[in-house]
Amino acid sequence: MKPLNTQEVIDFVETHIADFHQRRLEGLSKINLHTMIKKKNPYLFKAKNLERAQDIVKGFLDAHLSSQEEGMFGTFLENLAIFVCSKTLGGRKSAAEGIDLEFEKQNIFYLVSIKSGPNWGNSSQVAKMRDNFKTAMQRQRANSHGQVVQSVNGCCYGKTTEKNYDQGFYWKLCGQSFWKLVSGDEELYWKIVEPLGHKAKEKNKSFYQEYDRLLNMLTKRFLDAFCESDGSINWKKIVEFNARTDTALVLDRVIK
After folding, report:
1. How many structural domains does the chain have?
2. In this model, does residue 247 exceed pLDDT 60?
């Protein structure tokens, strides 16, 4: 394993975190009120007793952005892990289905599926990952004539514990343990924090200027579409837009 050049990691983070901020900003321009309402849970917002148009729209908007940003930042962290591993162990993006990273360390061939955090999927998604591991492990063993192959579910944050570490034929390594595996540096998990804030204040200022403008525009559209002339919110109309089956024939078939 080659020693990690921390400055290279800092340079990578500062360069590519700008891409995250740019994609985050561009994502605002693609948000549509009606599409957003269709994808979120209107019952939850009613249960929270939100009765001001801006509060409801902000709730929908923040939930949408949170989901979107989690995905974008997860991609950034995955690329960072692959970059780090390429410098220390010659790691590379894997061509195998569902495998993000592969590398060799101390005569063991590692297959890694990278996730943001430990609680990343439901049971069917975990089962799919396990199937991908099995297929990739079989192929690698056949190609390498019996080389030891280890699968790893690598999570960029969270803790590795005795309970989640051994998952049978694969390991689950989180946070510090994962970053140490790909870098050899026990402290890398916190060293990447500082460069993540590179120009964050400046970028966030631009983001929230656009956010406030969008919130005002979406609130106006919400008032026009889902509020009565006296300003009260028509919750029936919101729920119907989100959940009503428009075709009676389809509904009849479902019921039968």
Report:
1. 1
2. no
In a domain, 232, yes or no: yes
**Distance from C-alpha of 110 to C-alpha of 89, rounded to nearest angstrom:** 11
- The helix (H) or strand (E) run that includes residue 172 is strand 170-174
Residue 180 has pLDDT above 60, yes or no: yes
Burial class (CB in 10 A: 0-12, 13-18, 19+), 232: exposed
Helices then strands (H, E): number in the chain? 12, 5
CA-based nearest residue to 112, from 190, 162, 163, 183: 183
- Residues 6 or more apart in contact with residue 61 via CB below 8 angstroms: 31, 36, 214, 215, 218
Mean per-residue pLDDT, 118-131: 94
What is the spatial distance between Cα 143 and Cα 102, in angstroms, rounded to a whole number? 14
Question: Is residue 96 a contact partner of residue 80, using CB atoms and an 8 Å limit?
Answer: no
Residues 6+ positions from 34 with CB-CB distance below 8 Å: 225, 241
Mean pLDDT for 142-156 is 92
Count the Cβ atoms, other than its own, within 10 Å of residue 155.
Answer: 24
Return the minimum-mean-pLDDT range out of 66-70, 107-111, 183-187. 66-70
Cα dihedral sign, 227-233-234-240: positive
Give the span between the Cα atoms of 29 and 17, in whole angstroms.
20
| 1 in a structural domain | no
- Structural domain of residue 99, as residue ranges? 6-255
Q: Tokens in use for 28?
A: 């605002």
- Interhelix angle 200-226/235-243, rounded to 10 degrees, is 100
Rg of the chain over Cα atoms, rounded to whole angstroms, equals 23
**Residue 255: pLDDT over 70:** no
